[in-house]
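Notebook entry, structure prediction.
Reason for the run: the old model in the group folder had no record of what sequence produced it. Starting over properly, with the input documented here first.
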Amino acid sequence: MRIWDVNPGYLNRQSLLGEHRELHAIVSIFINNKKGYSRHPETLRWQGFGWALNQRHRLLVAEMKLRGYIDRSPVFLKTQSQRWPEVFVDSPAVQFSILSGKYTKTEQGRIPLPQNAQQLWAQHKYSVMARDVAEYKRIGRWVASGKTGNAISDIYPELVSLLRRPPGEGNLRNAIQHMWGYVSPCTTFPGKVIERKSMQGLLKEIQRLTFLHNIVYLKESTALGELSAWARTTKC
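New structure, fully documented this time:
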């Protein structure tokens, strides 16, 4: 049983659908007081964090939708709003190593597993921008400095923490508009039409154009999937 803490974009099809099944198994344990796996480390760490489990489900479903899957099994747990488990079964950086071993002879996810801090940051930039512009600038400077010892394990726990925060409306709009800059040459939409689109609608169009025109930088970004899981919860 495994609920990953890495962005679902890093999971291949089997891992993505597997986590979705196992998340629903944990939800069933909580709702129906089932004994099986009730003492499993994953079950224990999510105990009481219904809102976070619900949001992880939203993130999985957003990624599944990008890959053509339709989910009809919502999660309605709401306990401890905007609070996440503070413990990990394996640290986020170690989870990359586990996935790397699993994917040695098979497909990876939509987002390639990062080989260094620079690649990891490139994949997370717009997700961080949607939360905190100051942190976006600070982390960007740190990565660009190329200081000795810059490693995935140095930065990833902070990125995981940031991506657990709901984006503010202004920052979300700013990040999506930056992403739009990559796809705008591929569309003939008038500027006024774009301005009238909701952020959810604009993000859907970005997703469509990204895959249609194979815009690799956006295809390999966490924001392409995860922002749609949050856009519903903002007034955008």
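Summary: The chain is about 60% helix and 0% strand.
The old model has been moved to the deprecated folder.
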